[in-house]
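Hey all, sorry for the wall of text incoming. These are the three entities for the joint prediction.
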Amino acid sequence: MRVNRIMGWIEERIDLSGARHLLQEKVVPVHRHTVWYYFGGMTLFLFVIQVVTGILLTLYYRPSAEEAYESVQFIMIEVQFGWLIRSIHSWSANLMVATMMIHLFSVYLTQAYRKPRELTWVTGMLLFGIVLTFGFSGYLLPWNVLSYFATKVGTNVAGVVPIVGRVLLRLLRGGDDVTGATLSRFYGLHIAILPLLTTLILGLHLFLVQKQGMSVPPDMERVSDGRPLRTMPFVPNFLLRDLFGWFVALGVLAALAAIYPWELGQKADPFAPAPAGIRPEWYFIFMFQTLKYIPAKVGPFDGEVLAVLGFGLGGLFLLLVPFLDKRAARGEPSPLFRWIGVGIILYIAVFTALGYLAPGGK
Amino acid sequence: MVNMFLGTSLGALFISVFYPIVKYLSPPKLAEPTAFSVTIPWKVTEVKANSGRIFRFGSRPGLLVKTPAGELKAFSAICTHLDCTVQYREDRQIIWCACHNGVYDLNGKNISGPPPRPLDPLQVKVRGDQIVVMKG
Amino acid sequence: MASESNVRLVRQLSFGLFLLAALCLLRVPTAAAMHACIDCHKGLEEERLSRPAKKIADDYHLVRGLKCQDCHGGDHTAFDDKKASHSLAKGFLGKPKRQDIPAFCGKCHSDPRYMRKFNPKIRTDQVKEYYTSVHGKKLREGDQKVAVCISCHDVHAIRAIKDEAAWTYPIKVSETCSRCHADAKYMKDRKIPTDQLKNYKKSIHYEVLTKKGDISAPTCPSCHGNHGATPPGVDSVANVCSNCHAATAELFAKSVHEEAFSDLGQPACVTCHGNHDVLKPSDELLAGGKDTPCNTCHEEDSSELKKGNEIRTHLQNLAQGIDRAEAILTRAEHAGMEVGPPRFELIEAKDALIKARAETHTVKVKRIKTLTDPAVVIAQKTVKKGEELMVQLQFRRKGLAASLLVIAAALVGLFFKIREIDRRGGSG
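and here's what came out:
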């Protein structure tokens, strides 16, 4: 067949035996928790969607305070299928953060971070931070009222960090206030710096996953007591299932874009007062709500600073968990860390819910 | 059989993804967004001194004024009282709102009647024989 | 064991504390208490005597450095001595008689040289103006019930004009006037009605003033004057309205009604729109019905009423066209389409409607038609644009349905393929 001829031509020049071996031999363990294995690939698929729609958007978007809003409006109204590309980009961003969180917590609760996969976990956590930054920087780009004030509040929080806060705030904003300068740097961050970082770190992350294969939760390992687990070949069985999920996601995105198109709102006006009910995207709500509840002073400490440091510590804990969890390192189940993980999930869930349900938000 | 069905549906899916992308890439009818900087549809020479005209600025009306002294100015034409569209009065050389007799001077300042605030000013730039108005 | 220096420190500290306590306990007289008038009157049992001393805290005169003696004379340093503080030699004036109140306030307020010291731009002709008013004239005749300065400005707690709590603040002044003018019993012997406030509260002017806080909206003094308060006469009431409604007044003056009304002795504006209960005008005011203002003079089947009807039809056509356009644009907007540009186009039609409605005062059908016809076209074009947007929306929905079908087909194909491969149990 023609494919074989092309493959033959390539193999005469490059030794693909390693890749070929991987594809033919790679297997995926089949057990009660196999379903969670799909979420990493789903996040990757949605990321690819972001890259494609994002590149298409750069063909018409203009990153200046005077033209950004109008250019997005132009995409929504004048460009053919512009409404589709833009809405898919906005919706897919949210879906991607959701699948990434599911991926993160399922990996955590199945202790997949344990030896020998510590580095995979660390690169994964870095990717998590990168994706949240993608979301934060991209949100400003339409330069509408909501995004202007969300950025103002968000960068204010960055300014609260002790010692480096002021410098960090000025670095993010490109000055003391949120202006066109902020828009320019967020744009550079969003389409150049972060994609570069992602390429490097995601590349490492995927390489490690391929090299080391899929991790099996400790309980599953023990159940089999020595007997080899049931597996399915990666190609084509797992991959076809992956594809199935990806097509479902594509359908969901198309439906969301057509039925609930992403709003454009009003153009940002720095001189107008902040509208009531300003809040960030859902994945930041739990932090936003915590800041609302924390009293201005906790003992001798400033409440806001305490909260920000708390989140920082939380993030650091997650980043270093493979090195902190000694039991998992030994291959044993680690209920303490399991419960901490459940606690974190519950905290995020409850505070996100409160962010939407709590009255007025005082 | 399954292969044929899968093949055709995947092909159809491929087309339904690439068709919008190809359409997206082709330049739209209107080449660029016009809302930020609007080129006035009259040439500099066509605007007489002591005259004013309404033009479209984004999705709101703007007022282009050439003062008796020959200076070009532009404002948002939305009266700050109850949002009526203002007009230029050649006989009185002021900007006037017919709804409740509000009066603005040629700097947009509210000088008589109900309007509580001056008119929002816009920036005017002359490029050759074209007039371009931008947010102030 | 306390050392020498420690004992000395403790001694110094305790002396300091004692001094502090003593100072706190000793009553150091404050500036406010050092005023004989306020000091004494505050403690008096009779309410009408203690009231001024308590109210004075809110008075604007106090803020400007004036006190009791500046209006009433007397000696404000004569503590606990009624005779000395009320001494005529020190210029004590006591409580002025009602008919003397304007002159009493005018002592300062009509003296430009004095007022200049506080506010160089302030008017000093209020008392003069007052005596041209109905209130002033009647006061001179001996009528004690009419308004004097303190009736509208309060006494002893006179607030600044810009103070929102002042009795004369635009949002509150109608209540102030109505304290007498809406009191049927108080106004018993007079020939004027007492339902003005009730009617005014129905008006669009009142609504805009109180609900939107627009203090440029007319209230009692806007049309009647404040110090020179007099109802505008039949031949001058139109001048009052035309202060704001200048465009409309100009149009009316060019119409046949101007001469007709003045011949009949009918006031312009008020005849059709009312004076206090000026409602938001509707197109229904124009002929057609039995109870419209036109019926006051014109017979039911007259050609004039037919004209009025024609005008009404043109206006209503345009209004309905605009409503239709608005409705479809809002629907498209809620469904997620961008409607900025067509909304802008519609503004032109809305402006034309306002202009056409003003033109009804000329009662020239042709003129109104030349305004409404192009606007109707614009409204129709906007409706078309809205319909196009809805069509685009349908296209999107259909496109979505089609692509979902394709995806579903692919999913079905995948499902069977997966099953087939699983069954085969190996690589494909």
